[in-house]
Amino acid sequence: MDKTYYLESCIAGNDIPQRIVLDKLPLTIGRSSDCAAIINSSSLSRAHARIESRNGKIVLTDLASTNGCFVNHQRIEHATELEKGDIVHFAGIEYYLNIEEDVEEEDDRTRVFMQPLPKHFAIKSREFTELLEQELVTTFQQIITCQNGDIYGHELLGRGKHPGLGSSPYELFKIAESLNKQIELSVLFRRRGFIQAELAGIDRPLFFNCHPEECHKPDKLLMELTDLRKLHPGLDLVFEVHEAAITNIDAMAEIRKELSTLNIGLAYDDFGAGQARLRELTEAPPDIIKFDISLVRGIGDSESPRYKLLASLNKLVQEMGIRTLAEGVETEQDSIACKDIGIDYFQGYFYGRPTAITPD
Protein backbone atom coordinates (compact mmCIF):
# COMPACT_ATOMS: atom_id res chain seq x y z
CA MET A 1 0.00 0.00 0.00
CA ASP A 2 1.52 3.33 -1.02
CA LYS A 3 -0.92 5.66 0.71
CA THR A 4 -2.73 5.32 4.03
CA TYR A 5 -5.17 7.62 5.81
CA TYR A 6 -4.92 7.97 9.56
CA LEU A 7 -6.56 9.90 12.40
CA GLU A 8 -4.37 11.63 14.97
CA SER A 9 -5.30 13.05 18.36
CA CYS A 10 -3.59 15.67 20.52
CA ILE A 11 -5.35 14.42 23.66
CA ALA A 12 -3.04 12.82 26.20
CA GLY A 13 -4.01 9.68 28.11
CA ASN A 14 -3.74 5.94 27.83
CA ASP A 15 -7.45 5.55 27.06
CA ILE A 16 -7.32 7.80 24.00
CA PRO A 17 -5.45 6.31 21.00
CA GLN A 18 -3.12 8.90 19.56
CA ARG A 19 -3.19 7.48 16.06
CA ILE A 20 -5.72 5.29 14.28
CA VAL A 21 -4.49 4.00 10.93
CA LEU A 22 -7.31 3.45 8.46
CA ASP A 23 -5.71 0.63 6.51
CA LYS A 24 -8.33 -2.06 7.17
CA LEU A 25 -11.72 -0.72 6.16
CA PRO A 26 -14.49 -0.73 7.08
CA LEU A 27 -13.82 -0.31 10.78
CA THR A 28 -15.98 0.69 13.71
CA ILE A 29 -15.00 3.17 16.43
CA GLY A 30 -16.44 3.14 19.93
CA ARG A 31 -15.84 1.99 23.48
CA SER A 32 -16.95 -1.62 22.97
CA SER A 33 -14.31 -4.35 22.82
CA ASP A 34 -15.91 -5.45 19.55
CA CYS A 35 -14.81 -2.25 17.80
CA ALA A 36 -11.69 -2.19 15.65
CA ALA A 37 -10.63 1.11 17.21
CA ILE A 38 -11.49 1.34 20.91
CA ILE A 39 -11.74 4.71 22.64
CA ASN A 40 -12.35 4.23 26.36
CA SER A 41 -14.39 7.36 27.02
CA SER A 42 -17.82 7.47 28.62
CA SER A 43 -18.82 10.20 26.15
CA LEU A 44 -18.71 7.69 23.28
CA SER A 45 -21.37 5.11 22.51
CA ARG A 46 -20.42 1.44 22.46
CA ALA A 47 -20.50 1.48 18.66
CA HIS A 48 -20.13 5.15 17.87
CA ALA A 49 -19.10 5.45 14.22
CA ARG A 50 -18.08 3.53 11.12
CA ILE A 51 -15.38 4.50 8.63
CA GLU A 52 -15.30 2.86 5.21
CA SER A 53 -14.03 3.33 1.68
CA ARG A 54 -16.47 4.22 -1.10
CA ASN A 55 -15.20 4.78 -4.63
CA GLY A 56 -11.77 5.63 -3.30
CA LYS A 57 -13.13 8.09 -0.73
CA ILE A 58 -12.98 7.82 3.06
CA VAL A 59 -16.54 8.02 4.42
CA LEU A 60 -17.65 8.54 8.04
CA THR A 61 -21.08 7.42 9.26
CA ASP A 62 -22.54 8.08 12.71
CA LEU A 63 -24.04 4.90 14.20
CA ALA A 64 -26.92 6.65 15.98
CA SER A 65 -24.51 7.67 18.76
CA THR A 66 -25.73 9.64 21.74
CA ASN A 67 -23.21 12.49 21.53
CA GLY A 68 -22.70 12.54 17.79
CA CYS A 69 -19.93 12.77 15.22
CA PHE A 70 -18.68 16.11 13.91
CA VAL A 71 -16.69 17.06 10.82
CA ASN A 72 -15.07 20.49 10.98
CA HIS A 73 -17.30 21.28 13.98
CA GLN A 74 -20.58 20.46 12.20
CA ARG A 75 -22.60 17.50 13.48
CA ILE A 76 -23.22 15.01 10.67
CA GLU A 77 -26.57 13.37 10.05
CA HIS A 78 -25.63 11.28 7.01
CA ALA A 79 -22.60 9.48 5.59
CA THR A 80 -19.95 12.16 5.04
CA GLU A 81 -16.83 12.09 2.87
CA LEU A 82 -13.60 13.03 4.63
CA GLU A 83 -10.62 14.83 3.17
CA LYS A 84 -7.07 15.39 4.34
CA GLY A 85 -6.99 18.12 6.95
CA ASP A 86 -10.53 17.58 8.24
CA ILE A 87 -11.09 17.85 11.98
CA VAL A 88 -13.23 14.95 13.21
CA HIS A 89 -14.87 14.68 16.63
CA PHE A 90 -16.34 11.55 18.12
CA ALA A 91 -18.40 13.22 20.87
CA GLY A 92 -15.72 15.44 22.50
CA ILE A 93 -12.71 13.39 21.30
CA GLU A 94 -10.84 15.24 18.59
CA TYR A 95 -8.90 13.87 15.64
CA TYR A 96 -7.16 15.22 12.57
CA LEU A 97 -7.26 13.32 9.24
CA ASN A 98 -3.94 13.00 7.45
CA ILE A 99 -2.27 10.88 4.78
CA GLU A 100 0.96 8.92 5.02
CA GLU A 101 2.84 7.77 1.93
CA ASP A 102 4.68 4.45 1.50
CA VAL A 103 3.31 2.63 4.57
CA GLU A 104 4.30 -1.00 4.81
CA GLU A 105 1.82 -3.60 6.01
CA GLU A 106 2.49 -4.84 9.55
CA ASP A 107 -0.37 -7.14 10.54
CA ASP A 108 -4.11 -7.61 10.19
CA ARG A 109 -5.09 -5.35 13.10
CA THR A 110 -5.81 -1.65 13.06
CA ARG A 111 -2.59 -0.04 14.27
CA VAL A 112 -2.81 2.46 17.13
CA PHE A 113 0.40 4.20 18.23
CA MET A 114 2.05 7.49 19.18
CA GLN A 115 3.16 9.91 16.49
CA PRO A 116 4.14 13.62 16.46
CA LEU A 117 1.24 15.84 15.40
CA PRO A 118 1.28 18.46 12.65
CA LYS A 119 2.02 21.92 14.02
CA HIS A 120 -1.27 23.44 12.89
CA PHE A 121 -3.35 20.88 14.79
CA ALA A 122 -4.04 22.76 18.01
CA ILE A 123 -7.77 23.23 18.44
CA LYS A 124 -7.90 21.60 21.90
CA SER A 125 -11.64 21.17 22.17
CA ARG A 126 -11.36 18.82 25.16
CA GLU A 127 -9.42 21.37 27.19
CA PHE A 128 -11.81 24.12 26.16
CA THR A 129 -14.82 22.02 27.19
CA GLU A 130 -13.16 21.49 30.58
CA LEU A 131 -12.65 25.24 30.91
CA LEU A 132 -16.36 25.83 30.35
CA GLU A 133 -17.60 22.99 32.54
CA GLN A 134 -15.23 23.71 35.42
CA GLU A 135 -15.48 27.51 35.02
CA LEU A 136 -11.69 27.83 34.83
CA VAL A 137 -11.63 31.58 34.30
CA THR A 138 -10.81 34.60 36.39
CA THR A 139 -11.41 38.32 36.00
CA PHE A 140 -9.16 41.36 35.98
CA GLN A 141 -10.12 45.00 36.25
CA GLN A 142 -8.99 47.96 34.19
CA ILE A 143 -9.24 51.31 35.97
CA ILE A 144 -11.16 54.16 34.37
CA THR A 145 -10.37 57.66 35.66
CA CYS A 146 -12.06 61.07 35.56
CA GLN A 147 -10.68 64.38 34.31
CA ASN A 148 -9.50 65.25 37.85
CA GLY A 149 -7.66 61.95 38.24
CA ASP A 150 -10.17 60.26 40.57
CA ILE A 151 -11.14 56.66 39.85
CA TYR A 152 -14.46 56.64 38.02
CA GLY A 153 -15.00 52.91 37.46
CA HIS A 154 -13.64 49.57 36.32
CA GLU A 155 -13.88 47.35 33.25
CA LEU A 156 -14.09 43.56 33.54
CA LEU A 157 -11.45 41.65 31.58
CA GLY A 158 -11.60 37.84 31.39
CA ARG A 159 -8.63 35.48 31.58
CA GLY A 160 -8.39 31.70 31.31
CA LYS A 161 -7.00 29.43 34.05
CA HIS A 162 -6.89 26.04 32.28
CA PRO A 163 -3.33 24.61 32.45
CA GLY A 164 -3.57 23.32 28.89
CA LEU A 165 -4.71 26.60 27.34
CA GLY A 166 -3.42 30.14 27.13
CA SER A 167 -4.90 32.77 29.41
CA SER A 168 -5.46 35.37 26.68
CA PRO A 169 -9.14 36.02 25.90
CA TYR A 170 -8.16 36.53 22.24
CA GLU A 171 -6.76 32.98 22.02
CA LEU A 172 -9.70 31.52 23.93
CA PHE A 173 -12.28 33.21 21.73
CA LYS A 174 -10.47 31.91 18.64
CA ILE A 175 -10.93 28.37 19.95
CA ALA A 176 -14.50 29.16 21.01
CA GLU A 177 -15.42 30.48 17.57
CA SER A 178 -14.01 27.36 15.87
CA LEU A 179 -16.32 25.29 18.10
CA ASN A 180 -19.28 27.71 17.87
CA LYS A 181 -19.10 28.30 21.63
CA GLN A 182 -18.20 31.98 21.68
CA ILE A 183 -21.43 32.96 23.42
CA GLU A 184 -20.90 30.34 26.14
CA LEU A 185 -17.42 31.73 26.81
CA SER A 186 -18.70 35.32 26.88
CA VAL A 187 -21.44 34.37 29.35
CA LEU A 188 -18.94 32.56 31.57
CA PHE A 189 -16.55 35.54 31.69
CA ARG A 190 -19.44 37.84 32.53
CA ARG A 191 -20.98 35.69 35.24
CA ARG A 192 -17.65 35.01 36.95
CA GLY A 193 -16.75 38.68 36.72
CA PHE A 194 -19.95 39.80 38.42
CA ILE A 195 -19.46 37.31 41.25
CA GLN A 196 -15.86 38.42 41.84
CA ALA A 197 -16.76 42.11 41.62
CA GLU A 198 -19.51 41.71 44.20
CA LEU A 199 -17.21 39.77 46.55
CA ALA A 200 -14.65 42.55 46.16
CA GLY A 201 -17.23 45.16 47.11
CA ILE A 202 -16.83 47.20 43.91
CA ASP A 203 -19.41 49.98 44.03
CA ARG A 204 -18.22 52.19 41.17
CA PRO A 205 -19.52 51.80 37.59
CA LEU A 206 -18.58 48.36 36.28
CA PHE A 207 -18.18 48.11 32.51
CA PHE A 208 -18.69 44.66 30.96
CA ASN A 209 -18.63 43.33 27.41
CA CYS A 210 -20.50 40.95 25.20
CA HIS A 211 -19.50 38.97 22.12
CA PRO A 212 -20.85 40.52 18.87
CA GLU A 213 -22.79 37.29 18.22
CA GLU A 214 -24.88 37.95 21.32
CA CYS A 215 -26.31 41.11 19.76
CA HIS A 216 -27.67 38.97 16.92
CA LYS A 217 -29.86 37.21 19.49
CA PRO A 218 -31.18 40.18 21.50
CA ASP A 219 -34.00 38.28 23.24
CA LYS A 220 -31.57 35.71 24.65
CA LEU A 221 -29.09 38.43 25.59
CA LEU A 222 -31.71 40.43 27.48
CA MET A 223 -32.88 37.32 29.33
CA GLU A 224 -29.30 36.73 30.41
CA LEU A 225 -28.85 40.32 31.59
CA THR A 226 -32.20 40.22 33.41
CA ASP A 227 -31.10 37.11 35.31
CA LEU A 228 -27.76 38.71 36.18
CA ARG A 229 -29.41 41.90 37.39
CA LYS A 230 -31.60 39.83 39.74
CA LEU A 231 -28.51 38.04 41.04
CA HIS A 232 -26.49 41.25 41.48
CA PRO A 233 -28.92 44.12 42.20
CA GLY A 234 -26.24 46.20 43.94
CA LEU A 235 -23.72 46.44 41.09
CA ASP A 236 -23.55 49.69 39.09
CA LEU A 237 -23.43 48.15 35.61
CA VAL A 238 -22.54 49.58 32.20
CA PHE A 239 -22.99 47.30 29.20
CA GLU A 240 -20.41 47.78 26.41
CA VAL A 241 -21.39 47.02 22.81
CA HIS A 242 -18.76 46.99 20.09
CA GLU A 243 -19.45 49.31 17.18
CA ALA A 244 -19.28 46.38 14.71
CA ALA A 245 -22.08 44.57 16.56
CA ILE A 246 -24.60 47.36 15.93
CA THR A 247 -26.00 46.08 12.64
CA ASN A 248 -29.71 46.33 13.44
CA ILE A 249 -30.69 49.75 14.78
CA ASP A 250 -34.21 48.66 15.74
CA ALA A 251 -32.84 45.75 17.78
CA MET A 252 -30.28 48.05 19.40
CA ALA A 253 -33.01 50.54 20.29
CA GLU A 254 -34.96 47.72 21.97
CA ILE A 255 -31.85 46.67 23.90
CA ARG A 256 -31.35 50.31 24.97
CA LYS A 257 -34.94 50.44 26.25
CA GLU A 258 -34.70 47.19 28.18
CA LEU A 259 -31.34 48.14 29.71
CA SER A 260 -32.94 51.27 31.11
CA THR A 261 -35.61 49.19 32.85
CA LEU A 262 -32.84 47.04 34.36
CA ASN A 263 -30.91 50.13 35.52
CA ILE A 264 -27.95 49.15 33.35
CA GLY A 265 -26.04 51.84 31.45
CA LEU A 266 -24.99 51.51 27.81
CA ALA A 267 -21.61 52.31 26.25
CA TYR A 268 -20.57 52.02 22.60
CA ASP A 269 -17.08 50.51 22.58
CA ASP A 270 -14.23 51.13 20.11
CA PHE A 271 -16.09 54.03 18.49
CA GLY A 272 -14.18 55.18 15.42
CA ALA A 273 -12.43 51.86 14.78
CA GLY A 274 -14.72 51.23 11.81
CA GLN A 275 -17.31 53.46 10.25
CA ALA A 276 -18.05 55.51 13.39
CA ARG A 277 -21.71 55.36 12.42
CA LEU A 278 -23.54 58.37 13.84
CA ARG A 279 -27.11 57.31 13.18
CA GLU A 280 -27.04 54.95 16.16
CA LEU A 281 -26.32 57.91 18.42
CA THR A 282 -29.76 59.32 17.67
CA GLU A 283 -31.76 56.09 17.25
CA ALA A 284 -30.27 54.23 20.24
CA PRO A 285 -28.22 56.79 22.18
CA PRO A 286 -25.76 55.37 24.72
CA ASP A 287 -24.74 56.88 28.02
CA ILE A 288 -21.04 56.80 27.10
CA ILE A 289 -19.02 56.67 23.88
CA LYS A 290 -15.57 55.03 24.15
CA PHE A 291 -13.25 56.44 21.49
CA ASP A 292 -11.07 53.73 19.97
CA ILE A 293 -7.35 53.62 20.65
CA SER A 294 -6.70 54.31 16.94
CA LEU A 295 -8.06 57.83 17.46
CA VAL A 296 -6.20 58.39 20.73
CA ARG A 297 -2.72 56.92 20.38
CA GLY A 298 -0.16 59.50 19.25
CA ILE A 299 -2.85 62.16 18.90
CA GLY A 300 -0.31 64.97 18.68
CA ASP A 301 -0.87 68.68 19.29
CA SER A 302 -3.87 70.87 18.55
CA GLU A 303 -2.78 71.37 14.93
CA SER A 304 -2.64 67.70 14.00
CA PRO A 305 -5.48 66.24 11.86
CA ARG A 306 -6.14 63.49 14.41
CA TYR A 307 -6.44 65.99 17.26
CA LYS A 308 -8.92 68.07 15.26
CA LEU A 309 -10.96 64.99 14.32
CA LEU A 310 -11.19 63.74 17.89
CA ALA A 311 -11.99 67.22 19.19
CA SER A 312 -14.82 67.55 16.66
CA LEU A 313 -16.26 64.12 17.47
CA ASN A 314 -16.03 64.78 21.20
CA LYS A 315 -17.85 68.12 20.87
CA LEU A 316 -20.59 66.56 18.71
CA VAL A 317 -21.16 63.64 21.08
CA GLN A 318 -21.16 65.72 24.25
CA GLU A 319 -23.64 68.18 22.76
CA MET A 320 -26.00 65.19 22.39
CA GLY A 321 -25.76 64.62 26.14
CA ILE A 322 -23.44 61.61 25.81
CA ARG A 323 -20.33 61.34 27.96
CA THR A 324 -17.02 60.42 26.33
CA LEU A 325 -14.12 58.13 27.23
CA ALA A 326 -10.69 57.83 25.59
CA GLU A 327 -9.38 54.25 25.32
CA GLY A 328 -5.73 53.26 25.13
CA VAL A 329 -4.19 56.31 26.82
CA GLU A 330 -0.62 55.12 27.26
CA THR A 331 1.53 58.27 27.41
CA GLU A 332 1.46 61.57 29.27
CA GLN A 333 1.30 63.43 25.96
CA ASP A 334 -1.85 61.58 24.90
CA SER A 335 -3.36 62.14 28.35
CA ILE A 336 -2.73 65.89 28.19
CA ALA A 337 -4.19 66.14 24.67
CA CYS A 338 -7.37 64.25 25.63
CA LYS A 339 -7.84 66.45 28.71
CA ASP A 340 -7.38 69.57 26.60
CA ILE A 341 -10.04 68.30 24.20
CA GLY A 342 -12.39 67.90 27.17
CA ILE A 343 -12.98 64.13 27.11
CA ASP A 344 -14.75 63.04 30.30
CA TYR A 345 -13.00 59.76 31.20
CA PHE A 346 -9.72 58.01 30.42
CA GLN A 347 -8.60 54.40 30.27
CA GLY A 348 -5.22 52.89 29.48
CA TYR A 349 -1.83 51.81 30.77
CA PHE A 350 -0.87 55.39 31.66
CA TYR A 351 -3.44 55.19 34.47
CA GLY A 352 -2.86 51.58 35.50
CA ARG A 353 -2.54 48.07 34.14
CA PRO A 354 -5.19 45.38 34.65
CA THR A 355 -5.07 43.74 38.08
CA ALA A 356 -6.83 40.69 39.48
CA ILE A 357 -10.05 41.36 41.36
CA THR A 358 -9.58 40.35 44.99
CA PRO A 359 -12.10 40.37 47.87
CA ASP A 360 -11.99 43.27 50.33
Any chance you could write out the topology, listing elements then pairs?
Elements (H helix, E strand, L loop, with lengths): L2 E6 L10 E3 L5 E4 L6 E2 L10 E6 L2 E6 L6 E3 L2 E2 L4 E3 L4 E4 L2 E9 L23 H9 L3 E10 L4 E10 L8 H10 L3 H18 L6 E3 L9 H14 L5 E6 L6 H13 L3 E7 L7 H5 L4 E4 L1 H4 L8 H15 L3 E4 L5 H10 L3 E3 L7 E2 L4
Parallel strand pairs: 3-4, 13-14, 14-15, 15-16, 16-17, 17-18, 18-19
Antiparallel strand pairs: 1-2, 1-11, 3-5, 5-6, 6-9, 7-8, 7-10, 10-11, 12-13, 12-19, 12-20
Helix pairs in contact: 2-3
Condensed summary:
InterPro entries: Cyclic-di-GMP_PDE-like (IPR050706), EAL_dom (IPR001633), EAL_sf (IPR035919), FHA_dom (IPR000253), SMAD_FHA_dom_sf (IPR008984). It comes from Zhongshania arctica. With 360 residues, the chain is of the alpha/beta class.
Give the N-to-C terminal Cα separation.
Answer: 67 Å
Radius of gyration: 26 Å
Q: How much helix is in the residues?
A: 25-40%
Strand line-up in the sheet with most strands: 12-13-14-15-16-17-18-19
Assembly type of the chains comes to single chain
- Mean pLDDT figure: 84
Q: How much of the sequence is in beta strands? A: 25-35%
What is the succession of H and E elements? EEEEEEEEEEEHEEHHEHEHEHEHHEHEE
**What's the β-strand tally?**
20
Major sheet summary line: 8 strands, mixed, barrel
Uncertain regions spanning at least 5 consecutive residues: 102-122
Secondary-structure class: alpha/beta
Q: What is the count of helical runs? A: 9
Shape: elongated
